[in-house]
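Before relying on records like the one below, remember that each one covers exactly one chain. Contacts with other chains, cofactors or solvent are not represented anywhere in the record.
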Amino acid sequence: MLHHLSFAVTDLARSAAFYDAVLAPLGYVRVFADDTCVGYGTPGSGDKFAIKLRTVVSPPAAGFHLAFAAPDRESVARFHAAALLHGGEDNGAAGLRPHYGNDYYAAFVIDPDGYRIEAVINR
């Protein structure tokens, strides 16, 4: 259904370093970058997620979050650890979430601009 999504960020270098680190364990890389924007996707593809430099950022309220697909449970744990090392805030360590499904394994963090993000595998 979704083609791509972007977040406004106040410090592109800080946010790019954060997303480089947290998305790498999930298999996503920078697919383009310029002075005001960095796009991420799978190697050799177009962007599916981008961060764009803006002077004012107002993340959506609690209830909104973006979940990134993970290839395995280990990558979910690496996503969480990388987020905490690069300015993210813990919002739920890697683990099973049986209230979402028997095999729902996820980690939740808040990025440096206040966006709630997740890495998940559901198998």
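The domain at 5-55+64-122 is CATH 3.10.180.10 (2,3-Dihydroxybiphenyl 1,2-Dioxygenase; domain 1).
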